[in-house]
Give the backbone structure.
Amino acid sequence: MNFKGRTDSTLILHCHIPKTAGTTVSAGLRNSFDIFHFHHFHPDPFYILNCEVLEELLEIDPNLRSISSHHLRSFPLSVGSRPTFLMTFLRRPEDVFISQLKHLQSQFASFPDQVRCQWPKDTPHLPLRELVRRYLDMSAAASQDFCSQTRFFCNPDAGAAVGLSDGHGYGLDNYEMTHQILTGFHFVGIVEEMKRSLEVLTDQLLQWGTKVYFKLGIKLNTGGSGAKPAWLTPEDEVGRRVLAASRNDRRLHEHFRQKLLQDHCELRKRKWLGFKPAAADAKDAFAEGWRDGTRSLANSAQLYWSSRVDHTEQSVTPPLCSDLLELRAARAVVARWQVAELIH
Protein backbone atom coordinates (compact mmCIF):
# COMPACT_ATOMS: atom_id res chain seq x y z
CA MET A 1 0.00 0.00 0.00
CA ASN A 2 1.32 3.43 -0.95
CA PHE A 3 0.92 5.34 2.32
CA LYS A 4 3.29 8.10 1.27
CA GLY A 5 1.91 10.74 -1.06
CA ARG A 6 4.01 12.32 -3.78
CA THR A 7 3.52 15.89 -4.88
CA ASP A 8 5.33 15.25 -8.19
CA SER A 9 3.54 12.03 -9.17
CA THR A 10 0.91 11.44 -11.82
CA LEU A 11 -2.60 12.26 -10.62
CA ILE A 12 -5.00 9.43 -11.49
CA LEU A 13 -8.46 10.68 -12.46
CA HIS A 14 -11.03 7.89 -12.43
CA CYS A 15 -14.00 9.22 -14.42
CA HIS A 16 -16.77 7.12 -12.91
CA ILE A 17 -19.78 6.66 -15.17
CA PRO A 18 -22.73 5.65 -12.95
CA LYS A 19 -23.43 1.91 -12.79
CA THR A 20 -20.07 0.82 -14.23
CA ALA A 21 -18.53 -0.89 -11.17
CA GLY A 22 -16.81 2.36 -10.22
CA THR A 23 -17.25 1.83 -6.48
CA THR A 24 -15.26 -1.39 -6.83
CA VAL A 25 -12.51 0.36 -8.80
CA SER A 26 -12.43 3.22 -6.31
CA ALA A 27 -12.01 0.69 -3.49
CA GLY A 28 -8.95 -0.70 -5.31
CA LEU A 29 -7.46 2.77 -5.54
CA ARG A 30 -8.19 3.30 -1.84
CA ASN A 31 -6.42 0.00 -1.14
CA SER A 32 -3.44 1.27 -3.14
CA PHE A 33 -3.18 4.83 -1.83
CA ASP A 34 -5.11 4.80 1.45
CA ILE A 35 -5.81 8.39 2.60
CA PHE A 36 -4.27 9.77 -0.59
CA HIS A 37 -7.26 8.53 -2.63
CA PHE A 38 -10.31 10.82 -2.70
CA HIS A 39 -13.78 9.53 -3.63
CA HIS A 40 -15.58 12.75 -4.55
CA PHE A 41 -19.36 13.17 -4.31
CA HIS A 42 -21.69 16.03 -5.15
CA PRO A 43 -25.52 15.94 -4.79
CA ASP A 44 -26.14 17.73 -8.11
CA PRO A 45 -25.95 15.20 -10.98
CA PHE A 46 -25.18 18.04 -13.42
CA TYR A 47 -22.20 19.33 -11.43
CA ILE A 48 -18.85 19.09 -13.27
CA LEU A 49 -15.57 18.78 -11.39
CA ASN A 50 -13.46 21.10 -13.53
CA CYS A 51 -9.74 21.83 -13.61
CA GLU A 52 -9.99 24.86 -11.30
CA VAL A 53 -11.67 22.78 -8.58
CA LEU A 54 -9.09 20.02 -9.03
CA GLU A 55 -6.32 22.57 -8.51
CA GLU A 56 -8.03 23.69 -5.31
CA LEU A 57 -8.19 20.08 -4.11
CA LEU A 58 -4.44 19.72 -4.70
CA GLU A 59 -3.82 22.93 -2.78
CA ILE A 60 -5.75 21.45 0.15
CA ASP A 61 -3.94 18.11 -0.09
CA PRO A 62 -0.86 18.19 -2.38
CA ASN A 63 -0.25 14.48 -1.66
CA LEU A 64 -3.38 13.22 -3.42
CA ARG A 65 -2.62 10.32 -5.76
CA SER A 66 -6.05 9.53 -7.21
CA ILE A 67 -9.61 10.85 -7.42
CA SER A 68 -12.80 8.96 -8.32
CA SER A 69 -16.01 10.81 -9.13
CA HIS A 70 -19.24 10.76 -11.15
CA HIS A 71 -18.49 14.44 -11.74
CA LEU A 72 -15.09 14.08 -13.43
CA ARG A 73 -16.58 15.12 -16.77
CA SER A 74 -13.83 17.55 -17.77
CA PHE A 75 -10.61 15.88 -18.82
CA PRO A 76 -7.42 17.89 -18.24
CA LEU A 77 -4.10 16.39 -19.32
CA SER A 78 -2.50 18.10 -16.34
CA VAL A 79 -3.57 19.71 -13.07
CA GLY A 80 -1.16 22.35 -11.85
CA SER A 81 2.32 20.90 -12.26
CA ARG A 82 1.15 17.28 -12.29
CA PRO A 83 0.31 15.20 -15.37
CA THR A 84 -2.94 13.25 -15.20
CA PHE A 85 -3.72 9.62 -15.97
CA LEU A 86 -7.29 9.56 -17.28
CA MET A 87 -9.19 6.31 -16.87
CA THR A 88 -12.76 5.06 -17.11
CA PHE A 89 -14.85 1.91 -17.61
CA LEU A 90 -17.62 1.26 -20.13
CA ARG A 91 -20.46 -1.23 -19.70
CA ARG A 92 -23.04 -2.81 -22.00
CA PRO A 93 -25.63 -0.01 -22.35
CA GLU A 94 -28.68 -2.20 -21.79
CA ASP A 95 -27.19 -3.40 -18.49
CA VAL A 96 -26.56 0.19 -17.41
CA PHE A 97 -30.14 1.10 -18.31
CA ILE A 98 -31.68 -1.79 -16.38
CA SER A 99 -29.39 -1.19 -13.41
CA GLN A 100 -30.41 2.46 -13.25
CA LEU A 101 -34.11 1.59 -13.22
CA LYS A 102 -33.63 -1.08 -10.54
CA HIS A 103 -31.84 1.51 -8.43
CA LEU A 104 -34.70 3.95 -9.00
CA GLN A 105 -37.22 1.36 -7.82
CA SER A 106 -35.28 0.37 -4.72
CA GLN A 107 -34.47 3.95 -3.65
CA PHE A 108 -37.58 5.74 -4.95
CA ALA A 109 -38.69 7.07 -1.56
CA SER A 110 -35.32 8.76 -1.00
CA PHE A 111 -35.45 10.80 -4.21
CA PRO A 112 -36.61 14.46 -3.98
CA ASP A 113 -40.16 15.37 -5.00
CA GLN A 114 -39.00 17.01 -8.25
CA VAL A 115 -37.61 13.65 -9.34
CA ARG A 116 -40.45 11.42 -8.09
CA CYS A 117 -43.09 13.57 -9.78
CA GLN A 118 -41.62 12.62 -13.18
CA TRP A 119 -42.35 8.92 -12.59
CA PRO A 120 -45.50 6.87 -11.97
CA LYS A 121 -46.53 6.86 -8.31
CA ASP A 122 -46.38 3.06 -8.27
CA THR A 123 -42.82 2.95 -9.69
CA PRO A 124 -41.41 0.84 -6.80
CA HIS A 125 -44.10 -1.82 -7.31
CA LEU A 126 -44.33 -2.01 -11.09
CA PRO A 127 -42.90 -5.08 -12.85
CA LEU A 128 -39.57 -4.03 -14.35
CA ARG A 129 -40.70 -4.63 -17.93
CA GLU A 130 -43.75 -2.39 -17.44
CA LEU A 131 -41.64 0.37 -15.88
CA VAL A 132 -39.23 0.14 -18.82
CA ARG A 133 -42.11 0.32 -21.31
CA ARG A 134 -43.55 3.42 -19.64
CA TYR A 135 -40.12 5.07 -19.51
CA LEU A 136 -39.52 4.33 -23.20
CA ASP A 137 -42.91 5.82 -24.11
CA MET A 138 -42.24 8.90 -21.98
CA SER A 139 -38.76 9.38 -23.43
CA ALA A 140 -39.96 8.91 -27.01
CA ALA A 141 -42.56 11.63 -26.49
CA ALA A 142 -39.83 13.95 -25.22
CA SER A 143 -37.47 13.01 -28.10
CA GLN A 144 -34.85 11.73 -25.64
CA ASP A 145 -32.43 8.83 -25.86
CA PHE A 146 -30.53 6.71 -23.37
CA CYS A 147 -26.90 7.18 -24.42
CA SER A 148 -25.86 8.05 -20.89
CA GLN A 149 -22.25 6.94 -21.39
CA THR A 150 -21.81 9.01 -24.56
CA ARG A 151 -23.38 12.06 -22.90
CA PHE A 152 -21.19 11.61 -19.81
CA PHE A 153 -18.09 12.54 -21.83
CA CYS A 154 -19.64 15.25 -24.03
CA ASN A 155 -20.44 17.72 -21.29
CA PRO A 156 -22.68 20.61 -22.43
CA ASP A 157 -20.16 23.33 -21.58
CA ALA A 158 -17.59 21.92 -24.01
CA GLY A 159 -20.17 21.68 -26.78
CA ALA A 160 -21.54 25.16 -26.15
CA ALA A 161 -18.03 26.63 -26.42
CA VAL A 162 -18.00 25.75 -30.14
CA GLY A 163 -21.73 26.00 -30.83
CA LEU A 164 -22.65 22.31 -30.38
CA SER A 165 -25.87 21.45 -28.57
CA ASP A 166 -28.81 19.07 -28.85
CA GLY A 167 -30.80 20.63 -26.03
CA HIS A 168 -29.97 17.95 -23.45
CA GLY A 169 -28.87 19.34 -20.09
CA TYR A 170 -26.52 16.45 -19.23
CA GLY A 171 -24.47 16.41 -22.43
CA LEU A 172 -24.30 15.74 -26.16
CA ASP A 173 -25.11 12.43 -27.82
CA ASN A 174 -22.18 12.66 -30.24
CA TYR A 175 -20.27 9.47 -31.04
CA GLU A 176 -17.48 11.20 -32.97
CA MET A 177 -16.67 13.60 -30.12
CA THR A 178 -16.82 10.88 -27.46
CA HIS A 179 -14.67 8.52 -29.49
CA GLN A 180 -11.98 11.18 -29.86
CA ILE A 181 -12.07 11.98 -26.13
CA LEU A 182 -11.74 8.33 -25.13
CA THR A 183 -8.96 7.79 -27.66
CA GLY A 184 -7.08 10.46 -25.68
CA PHE A 185 -7.66 8.63 -22.39
CA HIS A 186 -4.79 6.63 -20.96
CA PHE A 187 -7.03 3.67 -20.13
CA VAL A 188 -10.57 2.56 -21.04
CA GLY A 189 -11.72 -0.61 -19.28
CA ILE A 190 -14.74 -2.84 -19.87
CA VAL A 191 -16.90 -3.97 -16.95
CA GLU A 192 -17.69 -7.34 -18.55
CA GLU A 193 -13.92 -7.92 -18.93
CA MET A 194 -13.01 -6.69 -15.45
CA LYS A 195 -10.15 -9.09 -14.69
CA ARG A 196 -8.47 -8.40 -18.03
CA SER A 197 -9.15 -4.68 -17.59
CA LEU A 198 -7.47 -4.54 -14.18
CA GLU A 199 -4.48 -6.52 -15.42
CA VAL A 200 -3.96 -4.09 -18.31
CA LEU A 201 -4.57 -1.08 -16.05
CA THR A 202 -2.09 -2.32 -13.44
CA ASP A 203 0.56 -2.79 -16.13
CA GLN A 204 -0.04 0.61 -17.72
CA LEU A 205 0.17 2.43 -14.40
CA LEU A 206 3.36 0.56 -13.56
CA GLN A 207 4.84 1.91 -16.79
CA TRP A 208 4.02 5.37 -15.41
CA GLY A 209 5.89 4.53 -12.20
CA THR A 210 2.76 3.89 -10.12
CA LYS A 211 1.97 0.59 -8.39
CA VAL A 212 -1.66 -0.26 -7.71
CA TYR A 213 -3.18 -3.26 -5.97
CA PHE A 214 -6.51 -4.53 -7.23
CA LYS A 215 -8.17 -7.76 -6.12
CA LEU A 216 -8.63 -9.60 -9.41
CA GLY A 217 -11.23 -11.99 -7.96
CA ILE A 218 -13.52 -9.22 -6.73
CA LYS A 219 -17.30 -9.41 -6.88
CA LEU A 220 -18.42 -6.43 -8.91
CA ASN A 221 -20.68 -3.77 -7.51
CA THR A 222 -22.63 -2.82 -10.64
CA GLY A 223 -25.81 -1.87 -8.89
CA GLY A 224 -27.91 -4.80 -10.09
CA SER A 225 -28.70 -8.29 -8.88
CA GLY A 226 -29.76 -11.48 -10.53
CA ALA A 227 -29.67 -12.56 -14.15
CA LYS A 228 -30.49 -10.39 -17.14
CA PRO A 229 -34.28 -10.11 -17.67
CA ALA A 230 -35.56 -12.85 -19.97
CA TRP A 231 -37.45 -10.27 -22.05
CA LEU A 232 -34.30 -8.27 -22.87
CA THR A 233 -33.97 -9.78 -26.35
CA PRO A 234 -34.59 -8.61 -29.94
CA GLU A 235 -37.64 -10.91 -30.05
CA ASP A 236 -39.47 -9.04 -27.27
CA GLU A 237 -41.14 -5.72 -28.17
CA VAL A 238 -39.85 -3.89 -25.08
CA GLY A 239 -36.47 -5.63 -25.14
CA ARG A 240 -35.99 -4.70 -28.79
CA ARG A 241 -36.66 -1.05 -28.01
CA VAL A 242 -34.12 -1.08 -25.16
CA LEU A 243 -31.45 -2.63 -27.37
CA ALA A 244 -32.09 -0.09 -30.13
CA ALA A 245 -32.11 2.91 -27.84
CA SER A 246 -28.39 3.25 -27.10
CA ARG A 247 -26.71 3.00 -30.49
CA ASN A 248 -23.75 5.28 -29.76
CA ASP A 249 -23.10 3.73 -26.35
CA ARG A 250 -23.04 0.29 -27.98
CA ARG A 251 -20.62 1.42 -30.71
CA LEU A 252 -18.26 2.80 -28.05
CA HIS A 253 -18.50 -0.36 -25.98
CA GLU A 254 -17.76 -2.63 -28.94
CA HIS A 255 -14.83 -0.53 -30.17
CA PHE A 256 -13.06 -0.19 -26.83
CA ARG A 257 -13.76 -3.79 -25.85
CA GLN A 258 -11.88 -4.94 -28.94
CA LYS A 259 -9.03 -2.57 -28.10
CA LEU A 260 -8.87 -3.88 -24.54
CA LEU A 261 -8.75 -7.50 -25.73
CA GLN A 262 -5.92 -6.63 -28.12
CA ASP A 263 -3.99 -4.86 -25.35
CA HIS A 264 -4.51 -7.83 -23.03
CA CYS A 265 -3.33 -10.24 -25.72
CA GLU A 266 -0.11 -8.23 -26.09
CA LEU A 267 0.27 -8.12 -22.30
CA ARG A 268 0.07 -11.94 -22.08
CA LYS A 269 2.98 -12.20 -24.50
CA ARG A 270 5.32 -10.19 -22.26
CA LYS A 271 4.00 -10.64 -18.68
CA TRP A 272 3.30 -13.71 -16.57
CA LEU A 273 -0.42 -13.59 -15.70
CA GLY A 274 -0.82 -17.09 -14.24
CA PHE A 275 -0.97 -20.76 -15.21
CA LYS A 276 -4.51 -20.64 -16.59
CA PRO A 277 -3.77 -18.01 -19.28
CA ALA A 278 -0.49 -19.80 -20.11
CA ALA A 279 -2.34 -23.09 -20.59
CA ALA A 280 -4.95 -21.42 -22.81
CA ASP A 281 -2.20 -19.83 -24.92
CA ALA A 282 -0.43 -23.17 -25.29
CA LYS A 283 -3.67 -24.93 -26.31
CA ASP A 284 -4.33 -22.35 -29.01
CA ALA A 285 -0.74 -22.53 -30.21
CA PHE A 286 -0.73 -26.34 -30.43
CA ALA A 287 -3.86 -26.10 -32.57
CA GLU A 288 -1.66 -24.28 -35.10
CA GLY A 289 1.16 -26.84 -34.89
CA TRP A 290 3.75 -28.45 -32.60
CA ARG A 291 6.35 -25.79 -33.29
CA ASP A 292 3.96 -23.00 -32.26
CA GLY A 293 2.92 -24.96 -29.19
CA THR A 294 6.44 -25.60 -27.94
CA ARG A 295 7.35 -21.94 -28.58
CA SER A 296 4.37 -20.88 -26.47
CA LEU A 297 5.41 -23.18 -23.62
CA ALA A 298 8.98 -21.90 -23.75
CA ASN A 299 7.80 -18.28 -23.69
CA SER A 300 5.50 -18.99 -20.72
CA ALA A 301 8.34 -20.60 -18.82
CA GLN A 302 10.57 -17.61 -19.46
CA LEU A 303 7.83 -15.20 -18.34
CA TYR A 304 7.23 -17.27 -15.20
CA TRP A 305 10.86 -17.22 -14.08
CA SER A 306 11.18 -13.56 -15.03
CA SER A 307 8.18 -12.74 -12.83
CA ARG A 308 10.01 -14.11 -9.78
CA VAL A 309 12.68 -11.44 -10.17
CA ASP A 310 11.87 -7.88 -9.13
CA HIS A 311 12.59 -5.85 -12.25
CA THR A 312 12.86 -2.08 -12.11
CA GLU A 313 11.13 -0.69 -15.18
CA GLN A 314 11.81 2.69 -16.71
CA SER A 315 8.71 4.77 -16.01
CA VAL A 316 7.06 7.09 -18.49
CA THR A 317 7.56 10.82 -17.88
CA PRO A 318 4.76 12.51 -19.84
CA PRO A 319 5.19 16.14 -20.89
CA LEU A 320 2.86 18.62 -19.24
CA CYS A 321 -0.03 19.75 -21.41
CA SER A 322 -2.79 22.16 -20.41
CA ASP A 323 -5.32 20.93 -22.99
CA LEU A 324 -8.80 19.72 -22.07
CA LEU A 325 -9.69 16.62 -24.12
CA GLU A 326 -13.36 17.59 -24.43
CA LEU A 327 -12.56 21.02 -25.94
CA ARG A 328 -9.97 19.53 -28.26
CA ALA A 329 -12.51 16.94 -29.46
CA ALA A 330 -15.35 19.47 -29.85
CA ARG A 331 -13.18 21.76 -31.98
CA ALA A 332 -12.07 18.81 -34.12
CA VAL A 333 -15.68 17.74 -34.73
CA VAL A 334 -16.69 21.25 -35.80
CA ALA A 335 -13.63 21.55 -38.04
CA ARG A 336 -14.46 18.27 -39.81
CA TRP A 337 -18.05 19.35 -40.32
CA GLN A 338 -16.89 22.66 -41.82
CA VAL A 339 -14.54 20.85 -44.21
CA ALA A 340 -17.31 18.46 -45.22
CA GLU A 341 -19.64 21.38 -45.96
CA LEU A 342 -16.99 23.03 -48.15
CA ILE A 343 -16.47 19.80 -50.10
CA HIS A 344 -20.17 19.34 -50.72
In short: The chain has 14 helices and six strands. The chain has a mean pLDDT of 85. Residues 11-311+319-343 form a domain with the Rossmann fold fold (CATH 3.40.50). Residues 247-270 form the longest helix (24 residues).
